[in-house]
Amino acid sequence: MINLETNLGRLRLENPVICASGCFGYGYELADYTDLHSLGAITLKTITPEPRNGNPPPRVKEISSGILTSIGLQNPGADFFMKNIMPKVKEACKPNQIIVSIAGNTVEDYANLCATISEKYGKGDIAAIEINAACPNVKLGGGAFCSKPDAMRELLSAVMKVTTLPVIAKINTNYDNTVEIAKVIEESGVDAIATTSTPLGMSIDIKKRKPALGNIKGPISGRAIRPIGVGKVWDIYRAVKIPISPSGGIYTTEDALEYIMAGATAVEIGSAHFINPRASLEILEGLKAFMVENGISDISSLVGVAHK
Ligand SMILES: Cc1cc2nc3c(=O)[nH]c(=O)nc-3n(C[C@H](O)[C@H](O)[C@H](O)COP(=O)(O)O)c2cc1C
User: Fold this and answer.
1) Is the beta carbon of 221 within 6 A of some atom in ligand 1?
2) Distance (Å, rounded) from C-alpha 280 to C-alpha 42?
């Protein structure tokens, strides 16, 4: 018997494999391509209070070992999400798999949206709310929280006042003071830290002699950033006790194990899904096989093992 149960604070998952926000749609669209119910959780595409059109196209450029994107949090807004999307999500996924990701321009935006979601969906409806304080692309708000401890404190204090649901704070670790930010997150009482480590980059379309992205620069996701992400998880694990749920270049079981051994309690699979919608499922199967082959009965015994 192997035990994959994973606790992210109050959030209890059947296993540690999570689909990262924005790389798995709203989950239900992928139902024909993978076994949704086997996954640990699905973090839905981030929603904001009002609809957003996102950044100008082109928004995606494949690069060696990764992907450059500049989506700009395109989404249909909270009202449309609750009315038209959530019913489909609830039909396709189990309540304890659904993580609703939110963002806004201001602290008030986040707090109001967090309150709205928490009033509409209780513990029997969704598993957690993820506060997306990570997006480096949105001109207002977003990434600012990841580098400014006071701003992060204010943001998390505001959202924690308006919800009793488990809360995950997602940050971009692309700043020098990530450990300080992680400590602020821990002090705020949230259940877990989700990380992404997407530095801004750019590419030139040499035929058009122009930047390949409409927004000129965009975050780099994919295999290229995995060593950055693993290093950040290593640092955060040494600094705080709350669970870490990183994304960043996890394409295989071995990638997931690297993160877990560096200190990740769960792993978030992002752009790997664009190549293979079953990536999360295959990583989960690989984790099970690794545990059986190595006589490991509980996945939690691997968390941070490389520090010992
Ligand atoms: C096309 C695209 C859209 C994304 N949208 C979101 C989003 O809405 N909210 C969010 O928190 N992260 C978003 N992300 C970031 C991913 O969740 C993830 O943190 C990042 O891609 C790093 O993981 P990866 O290297 O496995 O792709 C997006 C990433 C991509 C590539």
Assistant:
1) yes
2) 10
Query: Considering only CA atoms, which residue is closest to atom 21 of ligand 1?
Result: 221
Mean pLDDT over each residue of the chain, to the nearest integer? 96
Q: Is 229 in the pocket of ligand 1 (CB under 6 A)?
A: no
- Measured by CA distance, the residue closest to atom 12 of ligand 1 is 21
State whether the beta carbon of 218 lies less than 6 angstroms from ligand 1.
Answer: no
Task: State the CB neighbour count (10 A cutoff) for residue 51.
Answer: 15
Q: What is the pTM of this model?
A: 0.97
Share of the chain above pLDDT 70, in %: 97
- The contacts of residue 261 (CB under 8 Å, 6+ apart) are 302, 303, 304, 305, 306
The angle formed by the CA atoms of residues 73, 75 and 81, to the nearest 5 degrees, is 140
Question: How close is the Cα of 171 to the center of ligand 1, in Å?
Answer: 11
What are the tens digits of pLDDT across the range 72-98? 999 999 999 999 999 999 999 999 999
Please work out whether the CB of residue 196 comes within 6 Å of at least one atom of ligand 1: yes
